[in-house]
Amino acid sequence: MALWTGCGRMSLSAAHLPTERAEGAFREGELMGKKLRRGVQCWPGSQGRAATRTLLRRGWARMSIVTDLPEEVTFTDLEMEKRNPRSVVAVILGGGAGTRLFPLTKQRAKPAVPIGGAYRLIDVPMSNCINSGLNKVYILTQFNSASLNRHLARSYSIGNGVNFGDGFVEVLAATQTPGEAGKRWFQGTADAVRQFHWLFEDAKGKEIEDVLILSGDHLYRMDYMDFVQSHRQSGADITIACLPMDDSRASDFGLMKIDNKGRVISFSEKPKGEELRAMEVDTTVLGLSRDQAQKKPYIASMGIYVFKKEILLNLLRWRFPTANDFGSEIIPASANEFFIKPPRFSFYDASKPIYTSRRNLPPSKVNNSKIVDSIVSHGSFLNNCFIEHSVIGIRSRINSDVHLKDTVMLGADYYETDAEVGALLSEGRVPIGIGENTKIRNCIIDKNARIGKNVSISNSDGVQEADRSSEGFYIRSGIAVILKNSTIKDGLVI
After folding, report:
1. Neighbouring residues of 274: CB distance < 8 A, sequence distance ≥ 6
2. Which residue intervals define the domain Nucleotidyl transferase in the entry (predicted)?
3. CA 51, CA 44: separation in Å to the nearest integer?
């Protein structure tokens, strides 16, 4: 369950800015000119709580905290206001080294990692944009981007069936520019956007009012225009998305702390130990039940932000000219307001499909096989095998007497013909796919892997970490990961 969390109406004083910038656009009463008032309050009273409960039953709710609390606060249905996706641009961040998904990220960017048998992680935010009516998208790439760039070109270019109308999908690769500062690569999320800030001021950016910042490697569904419209109606300058979190994963995220009225009072980036405990909050103020709040006492940032365009540009250029990251530097100084919505993720939503590269593959061919609680993607060949609680990617070949359990097989980029397979076997070599009488469990098999006959992969010794790349695999967190394009010889036991 995800929560929308909006940073409050940021009011910055001229004292926060460089002296030479303190005049002009930042004069008192103009853009970002009001002084920040620390004693912000949320919409108080039983009427507000009753309205929140009603909206939660409808599927979403919001709690509004503003720096200047009016004498009367009204609650307006978002659908009553006009949605204008033409004035929104989405910026998808291509991600860094992706060390937590290594070795799947050894040769690809994290957003290019295959998921669900037929998709890539980048397809999730891209499809959310398409289904939300957003047709202006920039993707910032830097690390291991060849595979990602190829997938984007195949999936979202003109003629692929996805209509962007007068919009665009443009890949912005990290590049060097004139000047000393221009010699640096992207130093973080904020720095990546800062290096291309001029795009929001050229001819394409004239009608842009809001900038949506997204991660290219997250798995969720969201109607971004609901998110943007909520941001606009609130009058907030920055809005962020969050989710309630339990103890097991909280220290992996930036956390926000609120008081019993819903006001954000601190932000901590990936706290641990006592610092983590200090970030516990009563999340019932966000609409969770008492039981839910006890299980999930933390509020974690999803790394999804929407900024008013002018606010974003001024924050990046003048207020925080050296800040490299949104989550650890810019957002902690800006969080004041909350919106709540519990979206759920599923690939199976006919009204909001997940788009990807059009491959025109045939249906999978299954011969005398047993498949239990599994996904088998198109273009695969399964012969006399047992697939249990596993995901089988496109163009997979699984031969007789193979048993896969708790396994993710990413599939292949191409087919080998029957003649090629026969030639490989006659030479004692291994074709792409899984050979006869092989047993595999708790494993991730990357693309184009060749696994021979009579192989056993189960990590029965319980090894947690191992680098056996010379033999074609790693063990990460107790899970065997077969490398892309690798060969596991006949009879090997892992």
Report:
1. none
2. 90-335
3. 11
Who contacts 34 (Cβ-Cβ below 8 Å, separation ≥6)?
11, 12, 13, 28, 67, 68
* Alpha carbon distance 358, 158 (integer Å): 12
Q: Residue-wise pLDDT tens for the chain (494 aa)?
A: 233 444 333 322 222 333 333 333 323 233 333 332 322 222 223 333 343 333 333 333 332 323 333 344 344 444 444 568 888 999 998 876 667 888 888 888 888 898 888 899 999 999 999 999 998 999 988 777 888 888 888 888 755 556 566 788 888 877 666 666 666 667 767 778 888 777 777 766 678 899 999 988 888 888 888 888 878 877 777 777 777 889 888 888 888 876 665 455 677 878 888 889 888 888 887 677 889 888 989 888 777 888 888 888 888 887 777 777 776 677 766 654 433 363 444 555 666 777 787 788 899 999 999 999 999 999 999 999 999 999 999 999 999 999 999 999 999 999 999 999 999 999 999 999 999 999 999 999 999 999 999 999 999 889 999 999 999 999 999 999 999 999 999 999 99
DSSP string of 8-43?
------GGGS-GGGSSGGGSTTSTT-SPPPS--EE-
Rounded (10°) CA dihedral 381, 382, 383, 384: -170
> How remote is the C-alpha of 266 from its chain's centroid?
24
Q: Are strands 381-383 and 365-367 parallel, antiparallel or unpaired?
A: parallel
Number of alpha helices (DSSP H) and beta strands (DSSP E) in the chain: 9, 31
Nearest to 260 by CA among 50, 63, 74, 5: 63
Dig out the tokens for 131 from the structure.
Answer: 């289904």
The amino acid that residue 464 corresponds to is Q
Rounded distance between C-alpha atoms, residue 48 and residue 51, angstroms: 5
Whose CA is closest to 403, among 446, 450, 460, 442?
442
For residues 353 and 119, the answer to whether their CB atoms sit within 8 Å is no
| Contact of 276 with 210, CB cutoff 8 Å | no
Tell me the C-alpha distance between 445 and 451, whole Å: 9
CA 100 – CA 113 distance, rounded (Å): 12
Residue 367 half-sphere exposure, CB side, CA atoms within 13 Å?
11
CA atoms within 13 A on the CB side of 266: 12
CA distances from 139 to 71, 95, 348 (A): 43, 10, 26
Strand-pair partners of 189: none
Q: Where are the alpha helices (DSSP H) in 45-143?
A: 45-58, 123-131
Burial label for 421, CB within 10 Å (0-12, 13-18, 19+), is middle
Residue 328 DSSP SS3: helix
